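Prompt: For my understanding, could you write out one protein's sequence and backbone structure tokens?
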Amino acid sequence: MRNKAAGSLSSRIVLSVTLVSFFIILIVFLVVEKINKEAFYNIEIEKANIIVRTIEPLIALNIYLDMSSKTDMIALQLIENPNILALKVLKNGKTINEIKSKEYENGIESSFVVEKNIFRPNSKKKVGTIILTYSSKNYQELTNKYTQLTVSLFLFLSILFLLLGLYIKRLLLPLRQIATSLKNYSPNKEINIPFAEAHNEIGLISTALNSMQQNILHYSKNQQNINHYLEERVAEKTLELSKQLYTNNLTGLPNRLSLLKKINTFSDGALIIINIDDFKEINDFFGQKVGDTILIKFSMRLKKMFLEDENIILKHFSGDEFALFFVQKPPLDELIEMTQKLIFDVEKMIFFHEKNEISLRITVGGVYQIEGALEKADIALKSAKKKGISYQFYDEKLNVEGQYKNNMEWVKKLKTAINLDKIIPYYQPIFDNKSGKIVSCECLIRLIDDENNIVSPSQFLSIAKKSRLYYELTKIMIQKSCHYFEHLDCDFSVNLSVEDILNSDVARYIKKTIEEYNVTHKIIFEILESEGIENYEEISDFIKEMKALGCRIAIDDFGSGYSNFEHLLKLNIDYIKIDGSLIKNLETDTNAQVIVETIVNFAKKLNILTVAEFVHNEAVSIKVKELQVDRTQGFFLAEPQEQLPL
């Protein structure tokens, strides 16, 4: 019984030692596996973070400059990396760029997502967010391989300890020493695992761990090489993008952004902007390719002219615009003299295309200060072009900045009025001079401002044309006027500019709207003669199309500035509206009476009705009737009003 008990006790001791050893080995390997998995995971996450940190400044700059195409280019280059699955760029919470790899679109099991805020260049103001989806494929493969190796070793040692249970106590101490050495393990640091030279199971374990450690070190070095390669590639692409950003692609000269960057590094200097006059005509006549060739040759000649002066930096903004930036500005009289010589030298330049000689003329705008140099030189250039002079230097008396500010404020008011439906028509009756009855009404645009004041078109219509809001105003007037007269038994007229008629989108909208409200036989289109009608064929086609629908046509402001009776012969019109400049002093101005009488007689022979505009008193009204003008419109009879007394 004692032998059996002893044997049983021995078995229990062996079994106990074996189980304890078994669990110790299990814990050791689980710890090692966890450490390695965390290491692999951190490596992959760090790679993704490096990529995001590298591209964030470029994307921030592109967002700030509204250059979404550059962001697309960065994304396309990144997505070539098989580990990058998707890239999304958000601006103000909205996606502006998103690109996905085929693997991502086909569905992936797992990935890392790295998110980083985008800040405006040289500012802490957040402008967007980058979201990078990075593949976890490498991480999974490494952890799977490591798990397989761990399991294999674990099984091997488990079997070994079951067979050699009696030696558990002897083997336990070396295993603990090995475990202790593994506590300070790092993938990038080689540690000394003891008992590697032993010719027993401990030696095998140590050798296996050393081999595993070498594999991990090898992988870590490879990852470092890959990261270094990626950093170099990103640096190369960054340099390439930077060069593209600050260089004109055609001439290779520094561009406008380069000038802005350069100006910020100097406390003083001068700037002149050179604009080639009517360069569009060269492109239209000879073609874009010839135009580009001339720009390249022109830039080379400018470069040669100022090659020896290190104080002058030549820039090429875009197209036909160049600039000279003076790092140290010369005396003003010398700068003006240099500008005059530049204009003279350019006019002597001859460029050849086949057998054609092409010469250039330039207009120059300059500024003799560094603060706001680019904007002020632009203002001087535009002022010179407007005056028809060859150059001008910025002067505070130009007050162009004030005009720009006023224009911008009105553009903002116009946009607000359009969005809040505060563009409305007012209606001014037109009276028949024989019966005295209202025969039609002119629809006149008005704007309701923030204080509910009614604003006349003289304050905003010209600005609307410059800001491209004019076509929107035309559409609003057409729709609201047609809606108002849809069920009224009265003709009405709407003003159209030549630009409205030549705009195919506006022309289509007009036709669609008048047919929708069934007012084709009520509406009269007033075309402004004062704008100059040059596109006879297109204007005539529009008139034919409208008259085929039953519409009528009037020539407005006839007699303002110069009048072309050829308009009346070429265009099939129904009414002539005589301009107010002839009508306002008609009772006393004999010259105006002769002109009006001539217009009336000419119109009657062509069966065209005449309308006198701006009749403001009784004397003028009587004179209009004496000259046999058919209809009258003006404040003397009725002012424009929101509702008609019909």
Remarks:
- Confidence is low (pLDDT under 50) at residues 1-10.
- The domain at 256-398 is CATH 3.30.70.270 (Alpha-Beta Plaits).
- The longest helix spans residues 2-64.
- The longest strand covers residues 438-448.
